[in-house]
Protein 1
Amino acid sequence: MAPGHSPCASCKLLRRRCAKDCIFAPYFPSDNPNKFAFVHKVFGASNVGKMLQELPVDQRADAVSSLVYEANARMRDPVYGCVGAISYLQNQVSQLQMELAMAQAEILCIQMEHQEPLAPSSATLADGIVPVHPAHSSMSTDDVVSRYDSLKRESSSLWT
Ligand SMILES: [Zn+2]
Protein backbone atom coordinates (compact mmCIF):
# COMPACT_ATOMS: atom_id res chain seq x y z
CA MET A 1 0.00 0.00 0.00
CA ALA A 2 1.43 3.34 -1.03
CA PRO A 3 1.84 5.89 1.75
CA GLY A 4 -1.12 8.25 1.93
CA HIS A 5 -3.35 5.71 0.16
CA SER A 6 -6.37 5.03 2.37
CA PRO A 7 -7.57 1.44 2.70
CA CYS A 8 -10.79 0.45 0.92
CA ALA A 9 -14.05 0.38 2.89
CA SER A 10 -13.77 -3.40 3.28
CA CYS A 11 -10.25 -3.46 4.71
CA LYS A 12 -11.04 -0.48 6.92
CA LEU A 13 -14.05 -2.22 8.43
CA LEU A 14 -12.24 -5.54 8.84
CA ARG A 15 -9.15 -3.69 10.18
CA ARG A 16 -6.69 -5.30 7.83
CA ARG A 17 -4.01 -4.14 5.44
CA CYS A 18 -5.40 -3.15 2.03
CA ALA A 19 -3.12 -4.91 -0.46
CA LYS A 20 -2.39 -3.42 -3.86
CA ASP A 21 -4.43 -6.17 -5.51
CA CYS A 22 -7.25 -6.09 -2.90
CA ILE A 23 -10.31 -7.65 -4.56
CA PHE A 24 -12.71 -5.26 -2.81
CA ALA A 25 -10.84 -2.01 -3.43
CA PRO A 26 -12.21 -1.24 -6.95
CA TYR A 27 -15.83 -1.68 -5.81
CA PHE A 28 -15.85 -0.49 -2.21
CA PRO A 29 -14.06 2.86 -2.00
CA SER A 30 -13.26 4.26 1.45
CA ASP A 31 -15.61 7.24 0.94
CA ASN A 32 -18.71 5.02 1.07
CA PRO A 33 -18.34 2.79 4.16
CA ASN A 34 -22.05 1.85 4.35
CA LYS A 35 -21.98 0.21 0.92
CA PHE A 36 -19.61 -2.46 2.22
CA ALA A 37 -21.00 -2.54 5.76
CA PHE A 38 -24.45 -3.65 4.54
CA VAL A 39 -23.04 -6.23 2.10
CA HIS A 40 -20.79 -7.60 4.86
CA LYS A 41 -23.67 -7.78 7.32
CA VAL A 42 -25.96 -9.66 4.91
CA PHE A 43 -23.55 -11.88 2.97
CA GLY A 44 -20.31 -11.88 4.95
CA ALA A 45 -17.06 -10.43 3.63
CA SER A 46 -15.40 -13.79 2.93
CA ASN A 47 -18.40 -15.03 0.91
CA VAL A 48 -18.38 -11.83 -1.12
CA GLY A 49 -14.64 -12.21 -1.70
CA LYS A 50 -15.10 -15.81 -2.88
CA MET A 51 -17.97 -14.83 -5.21
CA LEU A 52 -15.89 -12.05 -6.76
CA GLN A 53 -12.89 -14.33 -7.19
CA GLU A 54 -14.97 -16.86 -9.12
CA LEU A 55 -16.14 -14.20 -11.58
CA PRO A 56 -14.32 -12.75 -14.59
CA VAL A 57 -13.13 -9.21 -13.83
CA ASP A 58 -15.56 -7.63 -16.32
CA GLN A 59 -18.55 -9.10 -14.47
CA ARG A 60 -17.51 -8.14 -10.94
CA ALA A 61 -18.89 -4.59 -10.98
CA ASP A 62 -22.34 -5.91 -11.97
CA ALA A 63 -22.18 -8.59 -9.28
CA VAL A 64 -21.26 -5.97 -6.68
CA SER A 65 -24.14 -3.68 -7.63
CA SER A 66 -26.50 -6.65 -7.42
CA LEU A 67 -25.13 -7.61 -3.98
CA VAL A 68 -25.41 -3.99 -2.80
CA TYR A 69 -29.00 -3.82 -4.06
CA GLU A 70 -29.96 -7.07 -2.35
CA ALA A 71 -28.19 -6.12 0.89
CA ASN A 72 -29.92 -2.71 1.00
CA ALA A 73 -33.28 -4.32 0.35
CA ARG A 74 -32.62 -6.88 3.12
CA MET A 75 -31.77 -4.07 5.55
CA ARG A 76 -35.00 -2.28 4.69
CA ASP A 77 -37.13 -5.41 4.73
CA PRO A 78 -35.48 -8.16 6.81
CA VAL A 79 -38.19 -10.72 6.00
CA TYR A 80 -38.65 -10.45 2.24
CA GLY A 81 -35.59 -8.47 1.13
CA CYS A 82 -35.62 -7.58 -2.55
CA VAL A 83 -38.42 -10.12 -3.15
CA GLY A 84 -40.67 -7.67 -1.28
CA ALA A 85 -39.69 -4.87 -3.65
CA ILE A 86 -40.07 -7.13 -6.70
CA SER A 87 -43.57 -8.30 -5.78
CA TYR A 88 -44.58 -4.74 -4.86
CA LEU A 89 -43.46 -3.56 -8.29
CA GLN A 90 -45.07 -6.56 -10.03
CA ASN A 91 -48.37 -5.72 -8.32
CA GLN A 92 -48.04 -2.14 -9.52
CA VAL A 93 -47.33 -3.36 -13.06
CA SER A 94 -50.43 -5.58 -13.15
CA GLN A 95 -52.56 -2.80 -11.66
CA LEU A 96 -51.32 -0.35 -14.27
CA GLN A 97 -51.89 -2.94 -17.02
CA MET A 98 -55.46 -3.32 -15.78
CA GLU A 99 -55.93 0.47 -15.80
CA LEU A 100 -54.47 0.61 -19.30
CA ALA A 101 -56.91 -2.08 -20.49
CA MET A 102 -59.79 -0.12 -18.93
CA ALA A 103 -58.63 3.09 -20.59
CA GLN A 104 -58.41 1.28 -23.94
CA ALA A 105 -61.93 -0.05 -23.44
CA GLU A 106 -63.13 3.50 -22.69
CA ILE A 107 -61.47 4.75 -25.88
CA LEU A 108 -63.30 2.02 -27.84
CA CYS A 109 -66.62 3.03 -26.24
CA ILE A 110 -66.04 6.69 -27.12
CA GLN A 111 -65.07 5.78 -30.68
CA MET A 112 -68.28 3.74 -31.00
CA GLU A 113 -70.30 6.69 -29.66
CA HIS A 114 -68.87 8.93 -32.34
CA GLN A 115 -69.89 6.42 -35.00
CA GLU A 116 -73.49 6.39 -33.70
CA PRO A 117 -74.88 9.44 -35.62
CA LEU A 118 -74.39 7.53 -38.89
CA ALA A 119 -77.07 5.04 -37.94
CA PRO A 120 -80.70 6.24 -38.35
CA SER A 121 -81.92 4.74 -35.05
CA SER A 122 -79.04 6.17 -32.99
CA ALA A 123 -81.20 7.09 -29.98
CA THR A 124 -82.30 3.53 -29.31
CA LEU A 125 -78.85 2.09 -30.00
CA ALA A 126 -77.17 4.56 -27.64
CA ASP A 127 -79.45 3.44 -24.79
CA GLY A 128 -77.68 0.11 -24.73
CA ILE A 129 -74.22 1.65 -24.34
CA VAL A 130 -73.15 3.21 -21.09
CA PRO A 131 -70.64 5.87 -22.08
CA VAL A 132 -67.62 6.16 -19.79
CA HIS A 133 -65.81 9.46 -20.04
CA PRO A 134 -62.19 9.82 -18.92
CA ALA A 135 -63.20 12.66 -16.58
CA HIS A 136 -65.45 10.24 -14.68
CA SER A 137 -62.92 7.47 -14.33
CA SER A 138 -61.16 7.09 -11.02
CA MET A 139 -57.71 7.75 -12.45
CA SER A 140 -56.55 10.41 -14.88
CA THR A 141 -53.46 10.22 -17.09
CA ASP A 142 -51.69 12.61 -14.70
CA ASP A 143 -52.34 10.20 -11.83
CA VAL A 144 -50.86 7.31 -13.79
CA VAL A 145 -47.81 9.42 -14.72
CA SER A 146 -47.22 10.51 -11.13
CA ARG A 147 -47.66 6.93 -9.92
CA TYR A 148 -45.05 5.85 -12.46
CA ASP A 149 -42.66 8.54 -11.18
CA SER A 150 -43.08 7.38 -7.61
CA LEU A 151 -42.43 3.81 -8.74
CA LYS A 152 -39.19 4.92 -10.35
CA ARG A 153 -38.20 6.69 -7.14
CA GLU A 154 -39.06 3.59 -5.12
CA SER A 155 -36.89 1.37 -7.25
CA SER A 156 -33.95 3.80 -7.56
CA SER A 157 -33.85 4.54 -3.82
CA LEU A 158 -32.90 0.91 -3.25
CA TRP A 159 -29.65 1.42 -5.15
CA THR A 160 -28.21 4.08 -2.90
ZN1 LIG B 1 -8.97 -3.43 0.53
Protein 2
Amino acid sequence: MTDDKIEQEIAMATDDAWPDGSELSKGYALGAEARKPTALLDWSLHVDCPQCFLGNNLANCLHDTENSIAGHIFTHAWDKLEGWEVKCEGCGHEFEIDRVEYDGAYRIGKAASRRRVGP
Ligand SMILES: [Zn+2]
Protein backbone atom coordinates (compact mmCIF):
# COMPACT_ATOMS: atom_id res chain seq x y z
CA MET A 1 0.00 0.00 0.00
CA THR A 2 1.40 3.40 -1.01
CA ASP A 3 1.64 6.33 1.38
CA ASP A 4 -1.08 8.15 -0.59
CA LYS A 5 -3.36 5.14 -0.30
CA ILE A 6 -2.72 4.87 3.45
CA GLU A 7 -3.50 8.58 3.93
CA GLN A 8 -6.69 8.11 1.91
CA GLU A 9 -7.71 5.13 4.08
CA ILE A 10 -7.04 7.10 7.26
CA ALA A 11 -9.06 10.05 5.96
CA MET A 12 -11.98 7.76 5.12
CA ALA A 13 -11.81 6.03 8.48
CA THR A 14 -11.66 9.25 10.47
CA ASP A 15 -14.12 11.28 8.38
CA ASP A 16 -17.16 12.03 10.52
CA ALA A 17 -15.92 9.60 13.12
CA TRP A 18 -15.87 11.83 16.20
CA PRO A 19 -16.54 15.52 15.49
CA ASP A 20 -19.76 16.84 17.03
CA GLY A 21 -22.65 16.44 14.66
CA SER A 22 -21.10 13.56 12.77
CA GLU A 23 -23.20 10.53 11.92
CA LEU A 24 -21.27 8.38 14.38
CA SER A 25 -21.56 10.76 17.33
CA LYS A 26 -25.27 11.23 16.56
CA GLY A 27 -25.65 7.48 16.73
CA TYR A 28 -23.96 7.34 20.10
CA ALA A 29 -26.09 10.19 21.43
CA LEU A 30 -29.32 8.58 20.23
CA GLY A 31 -28.32 5.21 21.63
CA ALA A 32 -27.19 6.56 25.00
CA GLU A 33 -30.34 5.38 26.82
CA ALA A 34 -30.10 1.93 25.31
CA ARG A 35 -26.42 1.58 26.07
CA LYS A 36 -26.78 0.78 29.78
CA PRO A 37 -24.74 -2.39 29.91
CA THR A 38 -26.04 -5.56 31.48
CA ALA A 39 -23.93 -6.94 34.32
CA LEU A 40 -23.36 -10.64 33.87
CA LEU A 41 -22.87 -12.90 36.86
CA ASP A 42 -20.60 -15.85 36.45
CA TRP A 43 -19.79 -18.11 39.37
CA SER A 44 -18.06 -21.33 40.16
CA LEU A 45 -17.39 -23.47 43.20
CA HIS A 46 -14.30 -25.60 42.85
CA VAL A 47 -13.20 -28.61 44.82
CA ASP A 48 -10.35 -30.92 43.96
CA CYS A 49 -11.12 -34.63 44.06
CA PRO A 50 -9.03 -36.18 46.87
CA GLN A 51 -8.46 -39.29 44.78
CA CYS A 52 -7.57 -38.07 41.27
CA PHE A 53 -7.10 -34.33 42.06
CA LEU A 54 -9.39 -33.27 39.23
CA GLY A 55 -11.00 -29.86 39.84
CA ASN A 56 -14.77 -30.31 40.02
CA ASN A 57 -16.93 -27.22 39.52
CA LEU A 58 -19.92 -27.73 41.81
CA ALA A 59 -21.76 -24.85 40.11
CA ASN A 60 -21.89 -27.07 37.05
CA CYS A 61 -25.31 -28.63 36.37
CA LEU A 62 -23.61 -32.04 36.53
CA HIS A 63 -23.21 -31.53 40.28
CA ASP A 64 -25.93 -29.01 41.08
CA THR A 65 -28.80 -30.91 39.47
CA GLU A 66 -31.51 -29.25 41.59
CA ASN A 67 -29.84 -25.83 41.94
CA SER A 68 -29.51 -26.59 45.66
CA ILE A 69 -25.87 -25.59 45.77
CA ALA A 70 -26.59 -22.28 44.03
CA GLY A 71 -29.47 -21.71 46.45
CA HIS A 72 -27.24 -22.19 49.49
CA ILE A 73 -24.48 -20.01 48.05
CA PHE A 74 -26.73 -17.13 47.04
CA THR A 75 -28.67 -17.13 50.30
CA HIS A 76 -25.42 -17.08 52.27
CA ALA A 77 -26.21 -20.47 53.79
CA TRP A 78 -22.75 -21.85 53.05
CA ASP A 79 -22.81 -23.91 56.25
CA LYS A 80 -25.50 -26.09 54.65
CA LEU A 81 -22.83 -27.31 52.23
CA GLU A 82 -20.62 -28.65 55.04
CA GLY A 83 -20.43 -32.39 54.44
CA TRP A 84 -22.04 -32.04 50.99
CA GLU A 85 -21.58 -35.21 48.98
CA VAL A 86 -19.74 -34.89 45.70
CA LYS A 87 -19.17 -37.50 43.02
CA CYS A 88 -16.02 -36.69 41.07
CA GLU A 89 -16.84 -36.09 37.44
CA GLY A 90 -13.51 -37.58 36.45
CA CYS A 91 -13.06 -40.81 38.41
CA GLY A 92 -16.46 -41.23 40.08
CA HIS A 93 -14.99 -41.17 43.59
CA GLU A 94 -17.55 -40.04 46.15
CA PHE A 95 -16.42 -37.68 48.89
CA GLU A 96 -17.77 -34.97 51.16
CA ILE A 97 -16.59 -31.39 51.22
CA ASP A 98 -15.51 -30.00 54.57
CA ARG A 99 -16.74 -26.43 54.05
CA VAL A 100 -17.00 -23.59 51.54
CA GLU A 101 -14.55 -20.71 51.66
CA TYR A 102 -14.24 -17.68 49.42
CA ASP A 103 -11.07 -17.96 47.39
CA GLY A 104 -10.19 -14.43 46.34
CA ALA A 105 -6.94 -15.70 44.86
CA TYR A 106 -8.89 -17.75 42.34
CA ARG A 107 -10.36 -14.57 40.86
CA ILE A 108 -6.95 -13.16 40.11
CA GLY A 109 -5.69 -16.44 38.73
CA LYS A 110 -3.19 -17.49 41.40
CA ALA A 111 -5.07 -20.64 42.32
CA ALA A 112 -6.30 -21.24 38.79
CA SER A 113 -2.83 -22.10 37.62
CA ARG A 114 -2.58 -25.03 40.02
CA ARG A 115 -6.03 -26.40 39.21
CA ARG A 116 -7.01 -28.77 36.52
CA VAL A 117 -10.46 -28.13 35.18
CA GLY A 118 -12.83 -30.97 34.50
CA PRO A 119 -14.33 -31.81 31.13
ZN1 LIG B 1 -11.64 -37.92 40.96
